[in-house]
Amino acid sequence: MTLSADRLDRFTRHIVLPEVGGAGQVALAQAHVVLIGCGGIGSPALQYLAGAGIGRLTLVDDDVVDASNLQRQTIFTPADIGRSKAEAAADWVRRFDPVLDARAVAGRVGGHNAAQVIESATVVLDGCDNFATRLLVSDTCVRQGIPLTTAAIGRFQGQVANFAGHLPGQSCYRCFVGDAFDAEDCDTCAADGVLGAMVGMVGTFAAMAAMRVILEGHAALGDPQWGKLHLLDGLTPSLRTMRIVRDEACRGCSASA
Questions:
Q1: What is the mean pLDDT of residues 128-151?
Q2: Which end of the chain has fewer beta carbons closer than 10 Å to its terminal beta carbon, N or C?
Q3: What span, in angstroms and rounded, lies between the C-alpha atoms of 257 and 3?
Q4: Is residue 128 flagged as an active site residue?
Q5: Which pLDDT tens digit goes with each residue over 39-52?
Q6: For every residue of 180-193, which 3-state class applies, written as one string?
């Protein structure tokens, strides 16, 4: 694949970075990212994935835009209230960069469709708001051999990590949280509150993590840092990293060891 003159001009700031370069930009253009959740984390992540020229984007969300979302879900406007978030997000991508292929999945990921939704993804970025879906997505990624970028926030605490439980010796998301959270209940920002800028920081960090996965083998920035959980504290502020080791008893990834 070669980049046209107008694409070279659009991404020149990427290409002049030795850590990305022309080969890296081509890899981004050929990538397929499945974004689970187009809300607080998904919105800023999508903006920077699209800004990076990710060629194909599958956008998954079963919710509709509400006025309370506008404080942090930066791709939406008052005109989108009542619309499907996935459809509105796909429309945003088409306006931002018509060259990109954006597909909306206006429904929830479940056991009946998870494999089909993430099929052919280069990486899945999960920013949804419940553990049941997160664990289902993680398990499906392991079975299909697809890397997972996971991002979460709770008030002023953020978490971002890349997992590759399908690879020998690597952990998966279930190794991190275990089986106890295989349920629909989860703390919500409606109950606990959330600062828009904090969600933006986590979402853009997640976009960066996903790009590291895409660039592996193509550019120097391509270090996925598998199993390294990055913990962001927005109050201090600070960032620390911890290693999530593989749980040999994990029912999500142990079978693929």
A1: 95
A2: N
A3: 39
A4: no
A5: 999 999 999 999 99
A6: CCCCCCCCCHHHHC
